[in-house]
Automatic annotation (TrEMBL):
UniProt keyword list: ATP-binding, Nucleotide-binding
Keyword presence, ATP-binding: yes
Keyword Secreted appears in the UniProt entry: no
UniProt GO molecular function: ATP binding; kinase activity; tRNA binding
PANTHER family given in the database record: L-SERYL-TRNA(SEC) KINASE (PTHR20873)
Protein name per its UniProtKB record: Phosphoseryl-tRNA kinase
Matching Pfam families: KTI12
InterPro entries in the cross-refs: KTI12/PSTK, L-seryl-tRNA_Sec_kinase_euk, P-loop_NTPase, Ser-tRNA(Sec)_kinase
Encoding gene (name): PSTK
Gene3D superfamilies the UniProt entry points to: P-loop containing nucleotide triphosphate hydrolases
Amino acid sequence: MKMGEDVRGAHSEGPQKLVLCVLCGLPAAGKSTFARALRHQLQQELGWAVGVVAYDDVMPEAVLEKASARPLPSQWKLLRQELLKYLEHFLLAVINGCQMSAPASRTEAMWKDFITCLKDQDLIPSAPVEAQSLYPLTKTAVSRPLLLILDDNFYYQSMRYEIYQLARKYSLGFCQLFLDCALETCLQRNAERPRPLPAETIHQMGNKIEKPNPEKNAWEHHSLAIQSPACASEARLKLTDLLITALENPIKYVEENLEQKETDRLICSTNILHQADQTLRRIVSQTMKEAKDEQMLPHNLKLLAEELNKLKAEFLEDLRQGNKKYLCFQQTIDVSDVISFFHYEKDNIVRKYFSKQH
């Protein structure tokens, strides 16, 4: 692909060129190392401004320390949504050529780490400013094409779609890089880390991960799978071509037919409710069978069945009415997320009854 001056770094007249790049893959696949190398390559070869937002570096330390204890899935979802809000504030500042404002509602430790992330990459000045509610941008951030790499597992398609929606909202470029690394390699690297994740967590993620599927999903068209850890010269050419294509072809924002959107939402909600009902029934049935096999006392079995059926009913009511007692969805709802939430609550109930027998 022939690269014009604006692609190589000189800022042309017109709106700022921006790309949101989702970097996904299993824990310890080498994403952070790859992101740093890509950042250096694009700065040197194309003169782009590149920012890497590693979710592990921005999420509150207290939450990450609880990872081995399976933190409440809704907590992770809320934190991810909060980080997207921070990112949107930065994007608005770049697009409008103004200072970045601090969200009125924010987690201070998380916002501080986000600001540090931007400062360390010369996207906002490192010197302190008087008004901490406003942050000026650096010349680097606004004078050349800007690529923001979002580094996280993004193992569910719905997680990545949220980033696509943000890119579509502001007519930005969008692409996905999937770092394809063998599960055994990830487990070995993880074990060598100072604070490794439980191996079970990586196994579960390996079973759940939904790889980008450009043939099925049009919005995932600009995606590339990269074999980890090495990136051959041919793959590097494909990667550069993908990023330039995403930069030159931002997503066109189309005014939505609100009536059709509401109809589609109702149809989707009905389908999801049916799927969730069937799946939760099977989970409750399987859990009761396992409890009987473990010789739980008959009285406790009866109480356990009552609690699990009550929990199932409350989850389904959440889906119907949006009461948000357990579920914290805003726009997209994924059955796999509902099941994950249900398993967490179910496991807490089951542990309670088994502890009574010991």
